[in-house]
Design a protein that fits this description.
9-stranded antiparallel sheet, alpha+beta, 153 residues, 25% helix, 42% strand
């Protein structure tokens, strides 16, 4: 399931997620090292053409991790104002080999060359926020399911 399909399935949560990621330039990507342990790295993301794109320097460790094992978690930079909550996206990332798709990305973003470009398939989107200064609310979306909201005091 790509970003466009998620936006159709859960438009309000998708809009909040895009807003959160759009508030800051740098975010945190978690990948899996060769030994299975987690690696966190800074990353810029783009929402273009119904896709969530991850661009990386050539042969960077995070790119090599994703080429070996596509699973990732992406944490939006919470910044100083966490009023709109925290957003995390889980999924799989696959390197783009299609020349036309990569060319369209290059035209829009103008990244330094060469680079790795990954398109994402979402497995989960989670938003956590505080409501009424009293409740911790977690919204969870998974493909094929409606958004679930869990509220705790």
């Amino acid at each position: 399931m790509n970003w466009a399909a998620f936006t159709t399935a859960a438009p309000e949560l998708a809009a909040l997620a895009e807003e959160r990621f759009g508030s800051y330039r740098h975010h945190v990507l978690a990948t899996l090292r060769r030994d299975g342990s987690p690696r966190t790295s800074g990353l810029e993301v783009r929402f273009l053409g119904g896709e969530l794109w991850l661009g990386m320097m050539p042969r960077s460790l995070k790119a090599l991790d994703l080429l070996r094992d596509p699973r990732f978690a992406l944490q939006a930079n919470p910044g100083a104002d966490v009023g709109s909550g925290d957003v995390r996206i889980g999924g799989r990332a696959f390197e783009v080999e299609d020349g036309a798709a990569k060319a369209a990305y290059v035209e829009e973003v103008e990244p330094p060359q060469p680079f790795h470009l990954f398109r994402t398939e979402l497995t989960e989107v989670v938003r956590t926020y505080v409501e009424d200064e009293k409740y911790l609310v977690t919204q969870v979306w998974k493909p094929g399911e409606p958004v679930r909201s869990l509220k705790r005091t």
